[in-house]
Amino acid sequence: MDLIYWKDTERTGMVFTGLVVGLLSLFQLSIITVVSTISLGVMCFTVSVSIYYKILQVLNMGDGVHPFKAYLDLEMSFSGELADQYTQKAIVTVVSAANSLKNLFLVGNLFDSLKLLALMYLVTFLGDLCNGLTVLIIAVITLFSLPLFYRQHQAKVDSFFAGIQAKVDNVKDILHRIAQGGGPAPDPTPGGAKPKTQ
């Protein structure tokens, strides 16, 4: 979340630039070439820095501390309890997604299945316009742009989407009444009791 909200501008800039440049490289090169080239660049940098510090130590101009000691000492492990917790969450998510897809594709709810049908139809047009890599690059740029934009203009954005939501709810209510035979609008008062007129 700190990366997305640009709390550390330098760190976020490095991650964002690396992701975009890496994805753009895939337009011209294979993923194997991109990964191997990036790995080669990182290795050249780390080996050069390590040799430089070794030379300083030999010339008695350095303290002999490994340049990447702070990163080497980082603990990267999961406790058994934490691993079980993440595993259970992953299983619940997969099962829930499978149930949702089953209901959508096997028409468990006609309205939801029709919405998916319309969405997939629109996605076919998107597939004609661009490939998955382009969509992924747009998604990365959006991920690093929209949260910050929303945070800076939250009131205006909330007001705009509240208006849209009201219109969508109105259309859904009309379609629901049509599906039920075109009856009158439901009584908004609790229990259907009509308010007394003065």
TrEMBL record:
Keywords: Endoplasmic reticulum, Membrane, Transmembrane, Transmembrane helix. It is a multi-pass membrane protein. The keyword Signal does not apply. Pfam families: Reticulon. InterPro entries: Reticulon, RTN1-4. It comes from the Eukaryota. Residues 1-198 form the Reticulon domain. This is Reticulon. One of its GO terms (cellular component) is postsynaptic density. It is found in: Endoplasmic reticulum membrane. It comes from Salvelinus namaycush (Lake trout). The chain crosses the membrane at residues 12-32, 132-150. GO terms for biological process: brain development; endoplasmic reticulum tubular network formation; neuron differentiation. The keyword Transmembrane helix applies. Its main location: endoplasmic reticulum. PROSITE patterns: RETICULON.
